[in-house]
Amino acid sequence: MSTATRTNPLAFLTDQLNDLKARGTHFKLRVLEDEQEPVCTFDGKKVINLASNNYLGLTTHPLLREAALEATRKYGVGSGAVRTIAGTMKIHMELEEKIARFKNVEACVVFQSGFTANAGTVSAFLGKEDFIISDALNHASIIDGARLSRAKILVFEHKNIAQAEEKLASVNNEPGKKLLITDGVFSMDGDIGPLPALCDLAEKYGAIMMVDDAHSSGVLGRNGRGTIDHFNVHGRVDIQVGTLSKAIGALGGYVCGTRDLIDFLYHRARPFLFSTSHPPSVAATCIAAFDVLENEPERIEKLWENTRYWKKELGLLGFDIGGKTTPASETPITPIILGDGKLTMEFSRELFQEGVLGTGIAFPTVPEGKARIRTIMTATHTHDQLQQALEKLKKVGKKMGVLA
Fold first, then answer.
1. How confident is the model at residue 25, as a pLDDT?
2. Taking the CB of residue 43, how many other CB atoms lie within 10 A of it?
3. Per-residue DSSP letters for 335-375?
4. Which residues does the chain have with pLDDT short of 70?
5. Sheet holding 333-339, edge to edge
6. Which of 31, 60, 223, 332 is deepest in the core (most CB within 10 A)?
7. What pLDDT is stored for residue 2 in this prediction?
8. Are 136 and 366 in contact (CB under 8 A)?
């Protein structure tokens, strides 16, 4: 046997990590040690949490806790199989039926995550002869699904309806299916997709209309029904994707549409076919969450009250919160645009030392020169907590030369 020293075939990863460190955009995962709350403990330090997708505070809602415990006692901790073999439990079907009623559609299928819902759906029914017309700022899961489908991808400038029409018109006479796809709420800038105008285009050119409503579920529309309800375009969106991991407070994604669409995904969506289904506790938790949406609308009202206050005060401090070099936020997602990636990561670390968790986001998640601290409001932040966070942001902003 050779005793020669083996060359590390993964050495290139070390080189790339060193490059990230040199650029100042390398990070380490922060570890949460208690509940996902407005004030919680990360890495041994108690901080005001401005980074969570827990919009309505449902991760710790007593009804959701009890639903999870009861389902575990009744059904055990796991489903034991993929959905198509032996892993479809009655509670999974109950959840899907509940979501379908909530979203005003014929049927729904739940996936293991919002990412797999998007990627699995787009790649399931499109092929290399088809076309995808996609907003430039669509979520990574849409982009990956488009690539997996091998369809031809035509990207239009963010929310540029005229350019979207140009793309559709350019392939109008080509054989193959056309899919027009957008986020309902864009996750980095917090702006809302122009659904009515896109629906008009889809109808004009005979395209399939698809919306990823991850960041609007539980936030926009009646009782949090999302952008389709917000714009009243029911019946005009063929495929609705949502998440159970953000405002719903648990885990998973879902796709809503016609019964035939859902039946087809049962047969062809690879994440559905090849992943074990949710533990019964997760399904029960999500069912309880939709009950809360219906019965506690004051949570959404409080979320928007906090959001309006937060945007106003950040603007008064002098931070760039979008609308100058980036789209203006219209939702509880409010970016603080700093531009430089290294500065942003240093700002985030300094903010953490002051007792505020505001995660720095830089390239490749956002374009070069558009790095930001992404802040997210929740219904459970108190006025005092927001005031304290604003004071710390002001202190760090002045210290680092971001504010005059």
1. 87
2. 13
3. EEEEE-HHHHHHHHHHHHHTTEE--EE-TTTS-TT-EEEEE
4. 1-3
5. 333-339, 371-376, 360-361
6. 332
7. 59
8. no
CB neighbour list of residue 267: distance below 8 Å, 6 or more residues apart: 273
What are the structure tokens assigned to 136, written together? Answer: 């430039």
Q: Residues spanned by CATH 3.90.1150.10 within the chain?
A: 23-52+297-399
Catalytic residues: 187, 215, 246
At 349, list the tokens.
């670390």
For residue 131, the Cα-to-chain-centroid distance in whole angstroms is 24
Residue type, 283: A
Q: Tell me the two tokens of residue 260.
A: 């035939």
Contact 246, 54 (CB under 8 A): yes
| Alpha carbon distance 395, 391 (integer Å) | 6
Report field, pTM of the whole predicted structure over 0.85: yes
**CATH no. for 61-295:** 3.40.640.10
Q: Where in the chain is the domain with CATH 3.40.640.10?
A: 61-295
Fold annotation for 23-52+297-399: Aspartate Aminotransferase, domain 1 (3.90.1150)
Q: Which pair of structure tokens corresponds to residue 141?
A: 């899961």
Amino acid at 13: L
pLDDT value of position 1: 55
pLDDT in tens, 370-392: 999 999 999 999 999 999 999 99
pLDDT at 325: 82
Report the candidate in 298, 359, 351, 308 with the shortest Cα–Cα distance to residue 53: 359
